[in-house]
Amino acid sequence: MTSLRAIAKADLLITLRRGESVLLTFLIPLGLLFFVGWTGILGIEIETLVPGLFALSIISSAFVGLAVATGFERKYGVLKRLGATPVSRLTLILAKALSVAVIEVLQLALLWIVAATVFDWAPDVRLLGLVAGLVLGTVGPAGLAMLMAGRLRAEATLALANGLYFVFLGIGDVFVPADYLSDGVVALSNLLPAAPLAGLFRWATGAGEVTASVWIVLAVWAIAAPLAASKTFRWEE
Predict the structure, then answer these.
(1) Half-sphere exposure of residue 166, counting CA atoms within 13 Å on the CB side?
(2) Which end of the chain, C or N, has fewer beta carbons within 10 A?
(3) Is the whole-model pTM more than 0.85?
(4) What is the phi-psi region of residue 45: left when phi exceeds 0, alpha when psi lies from -120 to 50, beta otherwise?
(5) Quick one: how far is CA 137 from the chain centroid?
(6) 56 Cα distance to chain centroid
Protein backbone atom coordinates (compact mmCIF):
# COMPACT_ATOMS: atom_id res chain seq x y z
CA MET A 1 0.00 0.00 0.00
CA THR A 2 2.88 2.37 0.73
CA SER A 3 4.35 2.01 -2.74
CA LEU A 4 0.90 2.36 -4.31
CA ARG A 5 0.25 5.65 -2.52
CA ALA A 6 3.74 6.96 -3.27
CA ILE A 7 3.48 6.24 -6.99
CA ALA A 8 -0.05 7.65 -7.16
CA LYS A 9 1.00 10.87 -5.40
CA ALA A 10 4.05 11.38 -7.62
CA ASP A 11 2.05 10.67 -10.77
CA LEU A 12 -0.66 13.13 -9.73
CA LEU A 13 1.84 15.94 -9.13
CA ILE A 14 3.57 15.32 -12.46
CA THR A 15 0.25 15.29 -14.31
CA LEU A 16 -0.86 18.60 -12.80
CA ARG A 17 2.41 20.20 -13.90
CA ARG A 18 1.92 19.24 -17.55
CA GLY A 19 0.17 22.07 -19.37
CA GLU A 20 -0.96 19.83 -22.22
CA SER A 21 -2.60 17.47 -19.75
CA VAL A 22 -4.55 20.31 -18.17
CA LEU A 23 -5.67 21.42 -21.66
CA LEU A 24 -6.87 17.96 -22.60
CA THR A 25 -8.53 17.05 -19.34
CA PHE A 26 -10.14 20.34 -18.32
CA LEU A 27 -10.44 22.83 -21.16
CA ILE A 28 -11.67 20.61 -24.02
CA PRO A 29 -14.75 19.23 -22.20
CA LEU A 30 -15.45 22.68 -20.76
CA GLY A 31 -15.13 24.26 -24.20
CA LEU A 32 -17.55 21.72 -25.66
CA LEU A 33 -20.00 22.48 -22.85
CA PHE A 34 -20.06 26.18 -23.74
CA PHE A 35 -20.08 25.61 -27.51
CA VAL A 36 -22.88 23.04 -27.58
CA GLY A 37 -24.78 24.61 -24.71
CA TRP A 38 -24.89 28.02 -26.38
CA THR A 39 -25.35 26.93 -30.00
CA GLY A 40 -27.72 24.01 -29.46
CA ILE A 41 -25.96 22.18 -32.31
CA LEU A 42 -27.49 18.81 -33.26
CA GLY A 43 -30.35 19.54 -30.89
CA ILE A 44 -28.48 18.22 -27.85
CA GLU A 45 -30.17 19.11 -24.58
CA ILE A 46 -28.00 20.16 -21.66
CA GLU A 47 -29.37 17.23 -19.62
CA THR A 48 -27.97 14.85 -22.23
CA LEU A 49 -24.79 16.79 -22.96
CA VAL A 50 -23.35 17.11 -19.46
CA PRO A 51 -23.32 13.37 -18.62
CA GLY A 52 -21.77 12.71 -22.02
CA LEU A 53 -19.03 15.21 -21.22
CA PHE A 54 -18.51 13.44 -17.90
CA ALA A 55 -17.75 10.30 -19.89
CA LEU A 56 -15.48 12.21 -22.29
CA SER A 57 -13.56 13.76 -19.39
CA ILE A 58 -12.92 10.38 -17.82
CA ILE A 59 -11.85 8.89 -21.15
CA SER A 60 -9.46 11.80 -21.74
CA SER A 61 -7.78 11.31 -18.35
CA ALA A 62 -7.95 7.57 -17.76
CA PHE A 63 -7.14 6.62 -21.34
CA VAL A 64 -5.48 9.28 -23.48
CA GLY A 65 -3.55 11.21 -20.87
CA LEU A 66 -2.45 8.09 -19.02
CA ALA A 67 -1.45 6.19 -22.17
CA VAL A 68 0.67 9.02 -23.56
CA ALA A 69 2.35 9.88 -20.24
CA THR A 70 3.15 6.25 -19.45
CA GLY A 71 4.40 5.58 -22.97
CA PHE A 72 6.97 8.35 -22.73
CA GLU A 73 7.92 7.45 -19.16
CA ARG A 74 8.71 4.00 -20.50
CA LYS A 75 10.62 5.42 -23.48
CA TYR A 76 12.84 7.61 -21.30
CA GLY A 77 13.64 4.87 -18.79
CA VAL A 78 11.59 6.14 -15.85
CA LEU A 79 9.67 2.89 -15.57
CA LYS A 80 12.81 0.79 -16.04
CA ARG A 81 14.00 1.94 -12.63
CA LEU A 82 10.64 1.07 -11.10
CA GLY A 83 10.88 -2.37 -12.67
CA ALA A 84 14.05 -3.01 -10.68
CA THR A 85 12.10 -2.55 -7.42
CA PRO A 86 9.53 -4.91 -5.81
CA VAL A 87 6.69 -2.86 -7.37
CA SER A 88 4.49 -5.17 -9.46
CA ARG A 89 2.87 -4.33 -12.76
CA LEU A 90 -0.58 -4.46 -11.16
CA THR A 91 0.51 -2.06 -8.39
CA LEU A 92 1.75 0.37 -11.03
CA ILE A 93 -1.53 0.15 -12.93
CA LEU A 94 -3.64 0.65 -9.80
CA ALA A 95 -1.48 3.56 -8.61
CA LYS A 96 -1.82 5.34 -11.93
CA ALA A 97 -5.58 4.69 -11.97
CA LEU A 98 -5.81 6.18 -8.47
CA SER A 99 -3.97 9.36 -9.49
CA VAL A 100 -6.21 9.65 -12.54
CA ALA A 101 -9.32 9.30 -10.35
CA VAL A 102 -8.33 12.39 -8.37
CA ILE A 103 -8.03 14.40 -11.59
CA GLU A 104 -11.40 13.08 -12.74
CA VAL A 105 -13.16 14.21 -9.57
CA LEU A 106 -11.84 17.72 -10.18
CA GLN A 107 -12.96 17.56 -13.83
CA LEU A 108 -16.47 16.45 -13.01
CA ALA A 109 -16.79 19.00 -10.21
CA LEU A 110 -15.79 21.82 -12.55
CA LEU A 111 -18.21 20.70 -15.29
CA TRP A 112 -20.97 20.26 -12.72
CA ILE A 113 -20.50 23.76 -11.25
CA VAL A 114 -20.37 25.47 -14.65
CA ALA A 115 -23.37 23.54 -16.02
CA ALA A 116 -25.41 24.31 -12.92
CA THR A 117 -24.55 28.02 -12.74
CA VAL A 118 -24.45 28.93 -16.43
CA PHE A 119 -27.00 26.51 -17.94
CA ASP A 120 -29.27 25.87 -14.91
CA TRP A 121 -28.54 22.15 -14.99
CA ALA A 122 -30.33 20.50 -12.07
CA PRO A 123 -29.87 16.71 -12.24
CA ASP A 124 -31.84 14.08 -10.35
CA VAL A 125 -28.77 12.38 -8.89
CA ARG A 126 -28.29 8.69 -8.25
CA LEU A 127 -25.10 8.75 -6.17
CA LEU A 128 -24.41 5.04 -6.59
CA GLY A 129 -24.55 5.44 -10.35
CA LEU A 130 -22.08 8.33 -10.28
CA VAL A 131 -19.64 6.36 -8.14
CA ALA A 132 -20.01 3.29 -10.37
CA GLY A 133 -19.41 5.42 -13.45
CA LEU A 134 -16.28 6.91 -11.95
CA VAL A 135 -14.87 3.52 -10.92
CA LEU A 136 -15.77 1.51 -14.02
CA GLY A 137 -14.97 4.41 -16.33
CA THR A 138 -11.52 4.77 -14.78
CA VAL A 139 -10.38 1.17 -14.37
CA GLY A 140 -11.29 -0.11 -17.84
CA PRO A 141 -9.84 2.74 -19.93
CA ALA A 142 -6.81 2.95 -17.61
CA GLY A 143 -6.16 -0.74 -18.16
CA LEU A 144 -6.42 -0.24 -21.92
CA ALA A 145 -4.05 2.72 -21.69
CA MET A 146 -1.47 0.68 -19.79
CA LEU A 147 -1.89 -2.24 -22.18
CA MET A 148 -1.01 0.02 -25.12
CA ALA A 149 1.72 1.96 -23.34
CA GLY A 150 3.34 -1.22 -22.08
CA ARG A 151 3.63 -2.88 -25.50
CA LEU A 152 3.88 -0.14 -28.14
CA ARG A 153 6.51 2.48 -28.78
CA ALA A 154 5.71 5.88 -27.25
CA GLU A 155 5.08 7.52 -30.62
CA ALA A 156 2.68 4.75 -31.65
CA THR A 157 0.88 5.02 -28.32
CA LEU A 158 0.53 8.78 -28.80
CA ALA A 159 -0.95 8.39 -32.28
CA LEU A 160 -3.27 5.51 -31.42
CA ALA A 161 -4.54 7.01 -28.16
CA ASN A 162 -5.41 10.32 -29.79
CA GLY A 163 -6.97 8.55 -32.75
CA LEU A 164 -9.19 6.47 -30.48
CA TYR A 165 -10.10 9.60 -28.52
CA PHE A 166 -11.62 11.11 -31.64
CA VAL A 167 -13.36 7.82 -32.39
CA PHE A 168 -14.93 7.91 -28.92
CA LEU A 169 -15.85 11.56 -29.45
CA GLY A 170 -17.46 10.81 -32.80
CA ILE A 171 -19.32 7.56 -32.14
CA GLY A 172 -19.40 7.35 -28.36
CA ASP A 173 -22.81 9.05 -27.96
CA VAL A 174 -20.95 11.89 -26.26
CA PHE A 175 -21.04 14.75 -28.75
CA VAL A 176 -22.88 13.15 -31.70
CA PRO A 177 -26.20 11.55 -30.63
CA ALA A 178 -26.70 7.89 -31.52
CA ASP A 179 -29.71 8.86 -33.65
CA TYR A 180 -27.31 10.39 -36.19
CA LEU A 181 -25.31 7.15 -36.56
CA SER A 182 -25.98 3.97 -38.50
CA ASP A 183 -27.11 0.82 -36.70
CA GLY A 184 -23.75 -0.84 -37.34
CA VAL A 185 -21.79 2.07 -35.87
CA VAL A 186 -24.09 2.19 -32.85
CA ALA A 187 -23.60 -1.54 -32.29
CA LEU A 188 -19.82 -1.06 -32.41
CA SER A 189 -19.90 1.96 -30.10
CA ASN A 190 -21.93 0.02 -27.54
CA LEU A 191 -19.04 -2.45 -27.22
CA LEU A 192 -16.49 0.31 -26.56
CA PRO A 193 -16.23 2.09 -23.20
CA ALA A 194 -17.39 5.61 -24.11
CA ALA A 195 -21.03 5.06 -25.13
CA PRO A 196 -21.92 2.74 -22.22
CA LEU A 197 -20.21 5.13 -19.81
CA ALA A 198 -22.17 8.08 -21.20
CA GLY A 199 -25.36 6.06 -20.82
CA LEU A 200 -24.51 5.18 -17.23
CA PHE A 201 -23.89 8.83 -16.34
CA ARG A 202 -27.16 9.87 -17.99
CA TRP A 203 -29.01 7.34 -15.87
CA ALA A 204 -27.10 8.51 -12.79
CA THR A 205 -28.23 12.11 -13.43
CA GLY A 206 -31.84 11.31 -14.29
CA ALA A 207 -31.55 11.76 -18.05
CA GLY A 208 -32.18 8.22 -19.24
CA GLU A 209 -32.42 4.54 -18.44
CA VAL A 210 -29.62 2.01 -18.13
CA THR A 211 -29.67 -1.52 -19.49
CA ALA A 212 -27.89 -4.64 -18.29
CA SER A 213 -25.64 -4.54 -21.35
CA VAL A 214 -24.15 -1.22 -20.17
CA TRP A 215 -23.10 -2.74 -16.85
CA ILE A 216 -21.79 -5.88 -18.55
CA VAL A 217 -19.66 -4.03 -21.13
CA LEU A 218 -18.14 -1.67 -18.57
CA ALA A 219 -17.47 -4.53 -16.14
CA VAL A 220 -15.77 -6.61 -18.84
CA TRP A 221 -13.51 -3.70 -19.75
CA ALA A 222 -12.77 -3.02 -16.07
CA ILE A 223 -11.72 -6.62 -15.48
CA ALA A 224 -10.13 -7.67 -18.77
CA ALA A 225 -8.08 -4.59 -19.65
CA PRO A 226 -6.13 -4.26 -16.36
CA LEU A 227 -5.52 -8.01 -16.22
CA ALA A 228 -4.21 -8.04 -19.79
CA ALA A 229 -1.99 -5.04 -19.05
CA SER A 230 -0.61 -6.63 -15.87
CA LYS A 231 0.36 -9.75 -17.82
CA THR A 232 1.93 -8.07 -20.84
CA PHE A 233 3.36 -4.76 -19.60
CA ARG A 234 7.06 -4.27 -20.34
CA TRP A 235 9.07 -1.83 -18.23
CA GLU A 236 11.18 -0.65 -21.16
CA GLU A 237 10.97 -0.44 -24.95
Answers:
(1) 5
(2) N
(3) yes
(4) beta
(5) 6
(6) 6
